[in-house]
User: Fold DNA polymerase I from Thalassotalea litorea.
Amino acid sequence: MTQSSPYILVDGSSYLFRAYHVPYLQALSTADGHPTGAITGVLNMLRSLNKDYPDGKVIMVFDAKGKTFRNDLYPEYKANRPPMPDDLRCQIAPLHNIIRAMGYPMLVIEGVEADDVIGTLAEQASAQGLETVISTGDKDMAQLVTEHVTLINTMTNVTMDVDGVVEKFGVRPDQIIDYLALMGDKVDNIPGVQKCGPKTAVKWLTEYETLDGVVANADKIKGKIGENLRAAVEQLPLSYELATIKTDVELEKNLADIEASEPDTETLRSLYEEFELKRLLADLNAGSVPATQEDAATANDAEELTPLNQDIPSNYQIIYREDELDEWIVKLIKSGCFAFDTETTSLNYMQAKLVGLSFAIEPGEAAYLPIGHDYDDAPEQLSLELVLSKFKPLLEDETLLKIGQNLKYDANVLNNYDITLAGIGFDTMLESYCFNSVATRHNMDALAEKYLDYKTVHFEDIAGKGVKQMTFNQIDIDKAGHYAAEDADITLRLHQVLWPKLEKSEKQCSVFTDIELPLLPVLARMEQHGVLIDADLLNEQSQYIATRLDEIEVAAHNIAGKSFNLSSPKQLQTILFEEQQIPVIKKTPKGAPSTAEEVLQELALDYPLPKLILEHRGLAKLKSTYTDKLPLMIDGQSGRVHTSYHQAVTATGRLSSTDPNLQNIPIRSEEGKKIRQAFVAPDNHKIVAIDYSQIELRIMAHLSNDPGLLNAFAQGRDIHQATAAEIFNIELDDVTNDHRRSAKAINFGLIYGMSAFGLSKQLGIPRGRAQDYMDKYFERYPGVLTYMEETRQLANEQGYVETLYGRRLFLPEIKSRNGARKKAAERAAINAPMQGTAADIIKKAMLAVDAWLTVENDPRVKMTMQVHDELIFEIHEDIVDEVTKKLVQIMNDAVELKVPLIAEFGIGDNWQQAH
DNA sequence: CTTAATGCGTA
DNA sequence: GTACGCATTAAGG
Assistant:
């Protein structure tokens, strides 16, 4: 945020042309046929700009009719341009009228172009040291960028400062005119050097700085292109002049005298009515709501989006007849790429029955194909068999791209009908996640609100909620049809907004294209295959725990002298701290005496009751979460447990797992291990678990480039032992278990962005000692310290950090004035590149493993689970050794780091043994 | 019936 | 001190 409000100079003409060419805006017109797409586009852009810069002083600038000084310089200027189409021309006057009625100052100066007026105003602002933002879709304006002048393309929300210009064009803003002159411009008919494109222009300017420099050295340039340059020398000054935006246009008013006026709501209302601008009319009637500071803050994270998709008529069709279906199938095939969605009876993909399909090929052009609505007097629908037989080829066609929202679900459902979804082209959930993993939840309703400013029909709106909620097959087809068609429609529109955003960043795009999207079918296969659970073993364990819990309860009640609920912290407080008069060690944030684990641990040394409570808590949790629950989650059909892996949940890029969560199965306690024993291999198979050893520390070594750390890993040392030797300044062989434990705590702590305070607590040592350890660590591994400081700084500067592969994690709290929150965000900034890179790596490994499995096509090997740094397989015992060896190799070679990547394996009859 | 707070399982 | 999901209780409607 700049201190005084910036001037926002809007290149209205460039937006007008761009909006006119946006396909889905071209459909817009009033009922009597007056086109309004370009008007809508420009006004939407303006609305978004206002939201981004609530304090900005907006000045609208348009080209005037007729010739300009450039035509005097060069009669051929823009001679190749076709005349303005009538359906655009007729939108100009209404747009001007609306903008005037809105109260914006508007400049239309004859004899010069909008660019020149903007250049002049920007120059005036800069002279006064005022900030200026130029809103334009025209890249030529890059020549105006300075320390005080930035560009924003409000249609794509890309901003550009001096560094941005260098990044985008490869030359500085002050070289842009030279750059444009060299290249010339076909559309504007500006001559340049034949065959000189951006690459050549940048090359020359990098070497010779300016156009004059290039011309002076023209003799040195070899080949045909050198000849072309020499042939153009005469012309180049003219090209330069034509490409130069004026900054000294004579204006009637000075910048300071240009002021906005009050909106003329009556005129606006009549104009909005005349041109049927319903959304603006609604805004007007609601009283315009100023954008909040919070909105502005998120907008500045360079991730807020421009809703251009509003006010689009939607034409939703419900397909009942075979000829209608055939027509749609032709349309879908011709489209080459369509949005699609399934409607089913359940969120559980194993149990879900298909109720209908929906598609969209253009925004607003969508259809719903009902097949399984079975309420009383439901209209007759096409049969499932007919529909699937016609759709199977389309859905399995690699070359026919599908756009979906969470396509993994649809793929899983279709799999139940023997359809293997292929041509998974885009998934809007993953697009949103790769673009910004923390901005919203990535469900369709949230995305539509955020990115399209559109409120969708929610499932609850048509199905009801709570126990009375209907399943989709019970819902009235008309209602269901609108909902379903909208789903496909909105998915398509979201894709049209999100994809261009994602494409702006090559790295983010690559995370989507090379990691997340290909991982989708891999996860789908793992989910479908499921894991085998020994229910009898778990039930047995449940019984045992139940008995033990009863014993504990009786004992606890005896000590307390009364009956109470052991799992109620509140009742426990009363018993422990009031009735038993046990001293209060720690209080909860709200001031109540804490009964947290660590408190009870300490009290357990002196009192019997806390010890019982601890055991009770542990066992009760184990029983309810795992031993009772897991057997209930076995699918009746497959006899296995099918989790859901969520690909768009975590901020860092990890997967998460639910229903059940297979990523938090106990491992440490004895009782916990029993649960892993229940994850068994099928007959004649083994469970193989392969996990990455110290992956996050290895990544820290890679990212920090610290020689000591790199060396320790290169030599295959026990990293905690090596660290201990360094910190305590002793020989490797003299490292005791205690030393190693301390070093391990430091190593882990560093990954979490820990402070000396945290370390002291972890190790139970004084703060000063902890600080000494850390100082010593950083002294021995200075690269790590530098890396941490740089990461922190980077996070502060750009508001996000990146993984090795370009996954981006935004940290909105990094700008918080609340010290604690800011600190927490900084710790997250330290952790995210390491945790996130580890997530990227195992995802890449899963892709490599899956690729190999696909080639082998051997049903005796299945990848069944992922637990962050570990992959679990079921492998037939005949081939288990060789396959495991191969899998370890694939995981080791999944990526190349500056340190070796080591995967370790275990083989057993169950998951516990395999560890 | 939903939500927040607490506690605890994993990497 | 990072990142999650789930069970439970208690409070709000």
